[in-house]
Amino acid sequence: MTLVMRGSNSGLIYVIIVTRVNLIRNDGFMRNDMIIARKYKDRWLGLCLIITLCISLTITGKCLKILKSEIQVQNLLTKEFDYDKFRDIRIDKKQMARIKDEANTLLRKNPNLNGYPYIDEIGYLTYSMMVSDFDIINGSVPDMKSFIRGIGRVSKTDTYSCLYGYYKAIFSDLMYFPVPIINEDTQRVSYDDSWYAPRSYGGNRRHEGTDLMAGNNIPGYFPIISITDGCVEKIGWLDQGGNRIGIRSESGAYFYYAHLDSYAPDLKEGDAVIAGQVLGFMGDTGYGEEGTKGMFDVHLHLGIYVNSGDQEISVNPYWILKMLEYSRIKLIY
What we know:
Blueprint lengths: L9 H69 L4 H5 L5 H17 L11 H11 L12 H11 L3 H14 L18 E2 L6 E2 L5 E2 L3 E4 L9 E3 L4 E9 L3 E8 L4 E10 L8 E2 L4 E5 L16 E10 L2 E5 L2 H7 L9
Antiparallel strand pairs: 1-4, 2-3, 4-11, 5-10, 6-7, 6-9, 7-8, 8-10, 8-11, 11-12
C-alpha cells in the first residue's frame, strides 16, 4: 500500500491506515480459524456417527443371529420326524469334517462340557442333520453358538434322542471302503445312488441298498472286506441275497453284504471280525434256490440297517460309501 504524507496530520493518517489493515488481517485469521474448527467438528460428528452405526449394526447382527437360532429351535421342537428323509443319509466328507471340527473346537474351548450328554461329534451331527432337514449336502453346519443355544431344549425331544441313537450306530464304527485296492482293476468297480429304485424279484419292492458293480463282471475276482469291527450275526443263503453275510458293528448297526461268490474260509456265526478283514468275494449269487448264479451282473449289494424298536430300518449306503472312498486300503494276497 502507498501512503502520501501531507502536513502535520500525516502521522495520524498513517496510524489509522495501519490499524485498519491489522483489523482486516485479524478478522481474516478469525474466519479461517472458525472454518477450520467447523471442519474438525464436522469430521468428529461424522466419525461418531460411523462408530454409532457400526455398534448398532453389530448389535443388530447378533440379535438377528439369536433370532434365527430361536426360529430354528422352535421349528425343530414342533416338526414331525420324517423317516424317509432321515433314511437317505445325505451327508458328504466335507460337511462331516466340518462337524467334527466344530464339535472338537467346542470341547477344547469349553472343557467343562466334556461328559455332558449329546455334547460330542454324534450330537453335533444329529443337530446339524435336523437343522438342514436331513440334507446337509445342500444345507449348512450350524455354528457353535447356535448349537449351544439349541441343544439343551432340542435334546429333550424323543425325535432327537432317537436320531442320536441311529447316527451313533451308523457312523461310530465306519473304517474302510468294502472293496479294497488290489490292482488297477479296482478302479473299475462303480456304483450309483439306486436307493429306493424299483425291483421286481419276489414281488414289487424298493431297492434298499447300494450295488457296487464289477467292471470285469468276473465272479470271485474282487475281495470284499468288513467296513467295521463287529461280529458275524448271519451267514448263509437267502433266495434274494444269495450268499450273504451280516456283520453287527460294536455300536449296533447291521451291515449286510449280499450276492457273494464265496466266503472267507472258516467264517461262521458268532465270529469276531475287524475292519478290513476279508469276508468273501464279489459274485452273482441269488434270485433262486441255493446255488443259483448268473441271474444278474456280478456285484456286491451293500445294505445298512439300524434297530428301531422291535424292527430294523434300512438307510441309504450311497453317501456313506462316497465318504469311505477316501479310506480305501490296499490288500495283498
